[in-house]
Amino acid sequence: MLIKKINELREYIQPYKSDKETVGLVPTMGALHNGHLSLIKAAKEKCDRVVVSVFVNPIQFGPNEDYNKYPRTLDADYELCTKNGVDVVFSPSPAEMYGEGFILSNDNLTYVCPPFNYTDKLCGKSRIGHFDGVCTVVNKLFNIVQPDFAFFGEKDAQQLIIIKKMVKDLNIPIEIIGCPIVREESGLALSSRNKYLSDKGKKDALVLSKILQNIKQCYLKGITDIDALKETAFSLLNDNVELEYLEIYNSETLEQEEKANNNSRAFIACRVEGVRLIDNIKLGD
Ligand code: PAF
Prior knowledge:
The protein is of the alpha/beta class.
């Protein structure tokens, strides 16, 4: 079923909640691919009812980012969800979520702002306000759907860490489930933004996963010096790939540690053909 209105979604979900059925929410911005499908499968396995939200959230995009260009494929997304046993696709308009006229003025909205220590690095450094927008919409979706479980991909590892922190800090009674990155056979992490890449761009983009694999191999061979691990990337970079960041931080707190350890994660962001791509890998097995 496709639902576009908040009150209709609430009406639909209420009987399931009263019957004590478990509800799983998979929040997405649509343009669904096999990465999302793995979240849907995990939700289906764990929950009696599965809601997938499809909402390109305007407040998590900066003024020079791809909000208008972001792929919108609701018909295909809905079909994929139906085929895979999703009970409800919730796809509200920006006006439904933020009120009429919101697009003209966004300075009168209550935001949920995660702590600076979590957002002053990695994607948060170049995407100012991005995680405020993410936490705000995720909170709204949590309040609308009131799921028992919510499923997020590890590809957006900083987002997942920040959402877990928000849920803990705000005592939100929802269990957050992180699901492993899904990759093409080539190693490229699946992303809705891969659609913007040419075939050549997709080949160039393999540098991200190669750099991460290389760092992991070096760590497993015993290198724990963080600068030494990061330096292994430079021989793999080329002119077609513009590195935005490569960092190694604690997997749960995003803190900089003195030495890499089994709980460290390497994070990378690059631009390929002008498309911003991210990837990450846990160093320990
Ligand atoms: O990861 C995403 O697609 C989005 O950031 C999310 C969590 C759906 C919030 O808009």
